[in-house]
Amino acid sequence: MAQLGLRIPRAAAPVASYVPWRKTGNLVYISGQLPKGEDDVLICGRLGDNMSTDEGREAARLCALQLMSQMREACGGDLDKVRAILKVEAFVNSTQDFTEHPQVVNGCSDLLCSVFGSRMGAHSRYAVGCISLPLGAAVEVGAVIQVADDDE
Fold first, then answer.
1. How far apart are the C-alpha atoms of 58 and 63, rounded to whole Å?
2. Fewer C-beta within 10 Å: the chain N or C terminus?
3. Model's pTM, two decimal places?
4. What is the domain count for the chain?
5. Structural contact between residues 81 and 75, judged by C-beta atoms closer than 8 angstroms
6. Which is one Pfam family of this protein (predicted)?
7. pLDDT tens, 29-41?
8. Could you give the strand order of the β-sheet that contains 82-93, starting from the edge strand earlier in sequence?
């Protein structure tokens, strides 16, 4: 993380009636994370309307940092316990005719692969366009990860 010049933010609290992550065995299901920067400002907008693909990609990158924050919480503060990013689930706030969802979500996927390496960071995913997201967010991303067994 330090080599990439990244700082993981404090884990965001849920904005509704759910938990930020749930662990079963060595799998952690992380709820959708919104694109908030270090200044805690939410990146809002609609791709294809008032936001470019590059701006959307940056928003997805911020979602990846939020995901890593939740991973750190689920791993008791130790990201070295992450064994694999299994799946990324992304929603892009977009117009009906916007088609560059994969390029937007690459902002998240590429950062996860940079941080965890291609062996652990490569993942399955979906990138879905939708008409709106909570609080007007540009992107929302959840994930499923594998962590070290409790006895490791």
1. 9
2. C
3. 0.95
4. 1
5. yes
6. YjgF_endoribonc
7. 999 999 998 888 9
8. 21-24, 27-33, 139-147, 82-93, 124-130
